[in-house]
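ligand=flavin-adenine dinucleotide
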Amino acid sequence: MEKQVLRFKVNGDEYEVFIHPKTLLAEVIRDHLGLTGTKRGCETVSCGACTVNVNGFSVKSCSVLAIQCQDMEVTTVEGLEQHGKLSPIQRSFLDHGSYQCGFCTPGMLMSATAFLNEAKNPTKDQIKESIEGNICRCTGYNSIVRAIEAVTQGKYKEE
Amino acid sequence: MINDFHYLKPASVKEALAMYAEHDDCKVICGGQSLLIVMRQGMVAPEYLLDIKGLKELNYIRFDEKDGLRIGATTTHREIEKSDVIGKRYPVLVAMEEKLASIQTRNWGTIGGNLAHADPAGDPGPVLIALKAEIKFGSSNGEKTVPLDEFFVDYFETQMEHGDLVLEVHIPTPAPKFGCAYQKFNLLDSEMGIVAAAASVTLNADGTCADARVVLGNAGPTPLRVTKIEDLLKGKKLDDKLFAEAGKIASEEAQPVADIHASEEHRRHVLGVLTKRMLKKAFEQAQKA
Amino acid sequence: MSHAKYSVINTHVHNIDGVAKVTGRATYTFDVKLPGMLHGKILRSPHPHAKIINIDTTRAMDLPGVKIVVTGKDTLGIKQGIWRRYEELCDEQVLPLEKVRYIGEPVAAVAAITEEIAEAALDLIDVEYEVLPAVYEPLEAIKKEAPTIHEGVERNVNVTRHIEWGDVDEAFEEADYIREDWFKCSGQAHMCMETRAAVSNFTPEGKLTCWASTQSAYYTQGLLAGVLGLREGDVRVLAPYVGGGFGGKFELDAAMFCSAVMSMKLFKPVKVVFTREEDFIASKRRTPMFYYVRTGVKKDGTFCARESRMFSNGGAYTGMGATALYLSGFFHSFPYKWRGYRYDGYRVYTNTLPSTSMRGFGAPQAMFCSEQQIDWICADLGLDPFEVRRKNGHTEGYEVPGQAFIASCGLEQCINEIEKWVKSKGKLPANRGIGISSCGFMSGGIFNWFDSPYSFSSAVVTINVDGTVELHVGCQDIGQGSNTTMAIIAAETLGVKVEDIRVHSGDTAHCPADLGAWGSRQTLMAGNAVKMACEDAKKQLLEFAYAEMGINIVYDLDIKDRWVHIVARPERGMKYEDLVKKALRAKDGQRIMGRGYYTPHRKGMISPAYSYMMQAVDAEIDPETGRIKIHEVMTAHDCGQPINQLGLIGQLEGAASMALGYAYLEDMPMEDGKLMNPNLVDYKVIRAPEMPEAGIIEIDTYEPEGPYGAKEAGEGLTNPTAAALGNAVYHAMGIQMKELPITPERILKALREKKEQEAQK
Ligand SMILES: Cc1cc2nc3c(=O)[nH]c(=O)nc-3n(C[C@H](O)[C@H](O)[C@H](O)COP(=O)(O)OP(=O)(O)OC[C@H]3O[C@@H](n4cnc5c(N)ncnc54)[C@H](O)[C@@H]3O)c2cc1C
Ligand code: FES
Ligand code: FES
């Protein structure tokens, strides 16, 4: 019940927050740090709207105790761009129209980002599986799959 | 809402076991993928939460030709999925992991947590039993190793008592002519199975069946090993007729429970189909091995 | 048909709010946080039908951190509904005073300093109920002995709708073959990724600001003002970004109402966000329908007559259900010419969560029944399903008697294209089939049950000194991309670039009223308003251009790509920016401002225009388990002139995923009025691995009533899919699926029955 100090990095910045150990990572990100790009869409770890990357791996931040991220590095959607320059997958999402209402988009981008870091020459099925933990009610996914595919094909290499 | 709890963060297995022994109303959390959902629903509200996720001691995958495969309890699903040696020697495990939940859950959830959770619809249970795995668990009073099929005793219940932690899963090296296959029946690619079946087949040099196992998922309170099928197949030359008969037995022996996703009848029927198909697939693998 | 060369329309344009959305900058109601904001939670009924005897809130009020607990008694008790014109259809008190009519209905609300305290307080509210007998199915609820759900409503019949044309009985006489079938169509959750949410902020000046996840800021404003006893103008509704709507977010919901009521009592901002479970059990849903369909045809496949009766499960309240009842019956005739057509729809109250509009608005259900039955009739008579559809299909200039005039129609081309596509697939392997379905849909409903005195759509365009453009519209972007569509139409009309346009929407204080995002109305109606506003502004600019350029007034001037020029001699002209500056000076500094509006007149009963399509679904069935795999969906679509390429593909794919979900995955099973799958584990929506390739063949038509010839695209695309999948299963396995969703278990059951029948023969 005692509050504890959580020290971790979010989008490259060191943070120290004083939290109840029951606090979820999603709550720290949204409510304590005010990074509302990360969304939430369910109570059953089903929708993936809350996906962030922890040490480079995608996790659903509603299913992780924040305190378990002690000394780790978290990336949220806000951390994808650098000084206003969008990351390859963000640019590809724009070109492919891979969002509509946009509510699932931050989570999708984080799943895709983690996947792109590890996938070499993924098949279309692997790309689809990489976002199967993320629900999108608007797009029907195919435009998202095309956007990820374009990045794996090197179309968005940094100039 | 998740209740307030005291957070315990042990630095070693020894310390974890000591802490666990010390506190009565204490629950273990590893990846929390299953636990936090039930805590949020208020179904589990412990006074102490013992966090073993960071225990590196239990995070390993070791393979030795003689000894077989050992996986530590805090190893994540994703580490298993990505392991080269598992991919080579136990491809069925990788295939199973690839369809277990989403990447996010596999990145954080662990094999120990999955087995301790003892959900009869869990995927690793049936496959590991078909692979003849055993499980090591222990408390501050000592360790114990049991065959995995004996580990599960009821819905969400295992042989473990308060103070016990899952430590390791051990899978023997497969026999030379061995095959193992697993499939779950569901509507979405990687969701929990409505029902599932794992089958393994070991062949003698003459091509007859030396040993076989069929383990059904979500067909009763625990993964269900159908020994009647093993008896049927052992010593025989396997063929489609036998697989069909095995499927029939599986349908009969299963004790599935109906819910909105499928009636009991449909579950039995599909279990029969899956059993037949998985046996055949395992048999074909064993032939090729 | 005239196709001008467009410089913006139908080019590859990024969504104008794309950067906000891919960087996490877009702020939804879910994200709104105001200083001093309190968190609200709603207590919901555990009973499907019960009298509220007493509510004791003292224990909850005593919980530290709780600021207020409200019940129906703390409200004006006004019965509201979106069919504002018809008092008897305004039947819902958001916090009911006397009784609850479905499980999940709000009974009280709490605001506290944290969400956690508010939730804990719910357990401390003591409600005494007298449980009443309940009824859940329309065919039960309509019986004489069924319990009464709303006082004075006989047999629980909420609304009826009769549609008829031609001499139906005579037309049946002429038929050589008559077939009748019963169908059962399930409900479906909108399942917007952003659940219902609202933040209300009432201040001592007596003014309310409400951020809401809504499809129509204007409706929300009007409805809120009505139930709170405020002037419409004193209520400002903001909806900057909305996480999906699909027809479920333009009524007044409990998040809006409860947050507003509590904020008015406390003079503090209050936020209410539905949990996913609340969103499932207590927002509205697609209307479940029972359809009886009787169809008479001639031997050669000419359609003679159709007679249908439909009973829909209305749930506890009217909502938008009355419209769905009409539209289902109307589109059930689509897209064919019937000599005689008769439809009787009954919307019946039950003790379940209310049903309402959802993408397709009653048409997906109607098509599931109609389009499958047509394939079965073709099989019964040995006719070609493409030929029969072509023979009876709508054509340009056709009048649906007394209902609608079809000014543009590409149905025949749609059928031809899909026929080609299907034939190109050749012979399919066993257990695999392609099913087709055609349909049409409206481009904007001509309905004003809300009784708005404003025009249906309006727009105001203002031109800044540097030529950039402020476009104020009332239409609501809920993800369908209407802001981008409006920007494209504005840029095309004014002759500037999309990046010159800033669209203002989702704010009733700054944007003109507009009925909002429903009934596929925005492209056509708001699009026309924007076009008119921009033409108005452009005309003013060009007046100065004539003077400035000193040219003969017989010449035509135009602006394209920021270049003002003589149409006949495009090289002669001036920069658009320079013209704007000069025009400002000449007008004593008044900014150039254009106004536009659209209200349909003399366009029939339903819509000013109709889109047409045919879809094919290629599916494979595992004959042993009944599991379905969808290989591909192909759609030929006549949406007039496409405005936004990327947007159109997105709408098509999105509709396909939602409609496939409806066809074989999504269901809302209930036991004694209780929803059995109110979470995303048990309620299954299509995910990426299940999603097939979904291609589109655009059919070129020009709709005279649409802006630049455009019609709807997006909502109607939900209509054909369930039917097409049903037909695919029929052609693959020879079984007729009369119930949605098409589950493995239902497939196996039908296969067993088929076997038994064959054995009997
Ligand atoms: C959306 C979703 C989908 C899923 N789909 C699947 C699926 O398809 N197939 C499948 O098999 N699983 C599935 N799961 C379940 C989940 O993947 C596993 O159960 C999970 O990996 C458990 O690991 P964990 O480390 O997260 O355990 P936790 O959630 O931390 O713990 C689970 C239980 O085990 C106990 N526990 C954990 N570790 C130990 C230990 N070492 N010793 C003793 N007790 C321990 C805890 O006290 C708790 O009771 C799904 C989960 C989610 C959220
Ligand atoms: S919020 Fe739905 S998975 Fe985390
Ligand atoms: S864009 Fe709306 S949910 Fe994905």
